[in-house]
Amino acid sequence: MTFRLSAFLAGGLALATPAMAASETYQIFLGPVARSNATQMIALGRGTADATLDGNKLSINGTFGGLVSPATDAHLCQGIGIGVSGTCANDLTVSQDQSGNVSGTIVLNAKQMAALRAGQLYVQINSQKAPAPAGNLWGWILIAHKIVEQDVPQQGDWFLPQYDMPQSAEHGSTHPLKTKPDS
């Protein structure tokens, strides 16, 4: 009787324990900040990074190159949508060179977790000639997805319809920002 009760309790505890959540993978394509006459010759370069979310820990590891001047610092930033700059809070580690690595692990709060899933978090690398607030390279953290060739329409299972762009008269968008997932 004692053995059966112990086995029953052990089995019940195993069922009551929450399942370990699988980590989520994201990708980041770093490119020059929005171009203007002032930045077109100083904000150059490219890079890529992978990001993994394990619980509320976001780990970022990537490389970059082609900067006109050495990188000075890098940050995790949050805007209101893809391509819209915002505020930078969390520091990342970056090579102080024209090419190198960017990395870091950040514990996300609830607002940052929601922002990640909405496509509002991005990595920004600043450089000597392209310092903050605009920076040198930006890259939005998006769920890992297929990459297609230039001029191939984005459709099918690899299209990212879950990300919504905010309304912007400046860029000709008339699509309002979704405030609720089901709206």
Question: How are the elements arranged and paired?
Answer:
Blueprint: H1 2-16, E1 24-32, E2 46-54, E3 57-65, E4 71-78, E5 87-94, E6 100-107, H2 110-117, E7 121-127, E8 137-143
Summarize the structure.
The chain is 13% helix and 36% strand.
Please tell me about this protein's structure.
The chain has one domain: Sandwich (Immunoglobulin-like), CATH 2.60.40. Helix content is 13%, strand content 36%. It is built from 2 helices and 8 strands, in the order H-E-E-E-E-E-E-H-E-E. Strands 1-2-3-6-5-4-7-8 form an 8-stranded antiparallel β-barrel.
On the 0 to 100 scale, the average pLDDT is 79
Task: Provide the domain count.
Answer: 1
Number of helices: 2
Order of SSEs, N→C?
Answer: HEEEEEEHEE
For the largest beta sheet, what order do the strands appear in spatially?
A: 1-2-3-6-5-4-7-8
Give the class-level CATH name. Answer: Mainly Beta
Taking pLDDT < 50 over at least 5 consecutive residues as the criterion, the unreliable ranges are 1-19, 164-181
Instruction: Specify the biggest β-sheet.
Output: 8 strands, antiparallel, barrel
* Spatial gap, N to C terminus: 55 Å
Using only C-alpha atoms, the radius of gyration works out to 21 Å
Q: Total number of β-strand segments?
A: 8
CATH architecture: Sandwich
Strand content: 35-45%
**Structural classification:** mainly beta
Shape, per Cα inertia axes: globular
CATH fold label? Immunoglobulin-like
Task: State the helicity in percent bands.
Answer: 10-25%
